[in-house]
Design brief:
300 residues
Length: 300
């Protein structure tokens, strides 16, 4: 196994042609890819939470919850089968010795605020705000940048190298450097990792929060029974203003392609890349819309 100088000492498991086609060097070529599954220690998590609740007689109550989570693993279980999980997990370290890093399932901050007010005439109004940190993800290369045989058909596991300047990367079109440089500067997680291969799950989608409102009215009927009418408005902020309550993500996946491998620069010992930049913080249409649900319930 060699290491490609000039690209963060990325380990190479084979050769890459001048057109960007990788040829893995296998111990037993006749067998093709062989996946060995083993158990490793180190995965762990930490959760801290606090909650406040206050009741004001029988007329109102409020509550607030905050939770902080840190979770580390070597591979997040994003697929149930071993091989797809290997192919879909960005490689931080080597195939034999992956580094501990942020888990794909870590939600570092979560907030819930709720209030309930009971009004005359058997009416009540409740509000619930739920907000959470965006999900972690990794910027990767479209292609097999380390020649391990993984990098096609949507199976991307090679983390992008973040160049210091235009001399620290070989682009198929050198004029694209300005666009790439501005993209890196616009992403704090990339800006602080210039000159090295990014850490797995070191980037995050934006914070997402939503405010829901429920209005309920009970109508007494016979012998203590009642008919209840309920209106639930989800993402009420978007109902008030179309610019509010928006859900934005850079990628819904744990990976976001940033560069596409199109060749190999043997003199510099690194890949030749074309840009494949994602749209940053794109609005998710369905998750950003307000919705209303009306329901009827008979209680007896």
């Amino acid at each position: 196994m060699g290491a490609a100088p000039g690209e963060g000492n990325r380990p190479l498991y084979g050769a890459i042609s001048g057109t960007g086609v990788a040829s893995p060097t296998r111990r037993a070529p006749a067998l093709g890819a062989v996946v060995r599954v083993s158990d490793r220690s180190g995965d762990h998590s930490l959760v801290l939470s606090t909650q406040f609740r206050k009741q004001f007689g029988d007329r109102a109550e409020v509550s607030a919850l905050y939770a902080h989570t840190r979770a580390w693993d070597r591979m997040s279980l994003v697929n149930f089968q071993a091989r797809p999980n290997l192919q879909n997990t960005p490689l931080d370290g080597t195939l034999d010795d992956r580094r501990l890093g942020t888990s794909a399932f870590e939600i570092s901050h979560r907030v819930e605020l709720s209030a309930l007010v009971r009004l005359p005439y058997r009416m009540q109004i409740s509000l619930l705000y739920a907000g959470a940190s965006g999900t972690p993800f990794t910027y990767v290369v479209q292609g097999d940048a380390n020649a391990d045989g993984i990098g096609s058909g949507g199976m991307l596991n090679d983390i992008a190298y973040v160049p210091r300047d235009s001399l620290d990367i070989t682009l198929a079109n050198p004029a694209d450097w300005g666009t790439l440089d501005r993209f890196i500067e616009s992403e704090p997680c990339l800006r602080r990792q210039r000159g090295r291969i990014a850490t797995r799950n070191s980037c995050r989608n934006p914070w997402f929060g939503t405010l829901n409102v429920r209005v309920a009215k009970a109508f007494p009927t016979l012998s203590g029974q009642s008919l209840e009418l309920t209106a639930d408005v989800y993402n009420v902020l978007n109902l008030i203003n179309r610019q509010w309550g928006q859900s934005r993500v850079t990628t819904p996946d744990i990976r976001a392609p940033m560069l596409r491998l199109v060749g190999y620069d043997a003199s510099a010992g690194r890949g030749i890349y074309a840009l494949q930049l994602p749209g940053l913080r794109q609005i998710q249409d369905l998750a950003s819309r307000w919705q209303m649900e009306l329901s009827v319930r008979y209680v007896f």
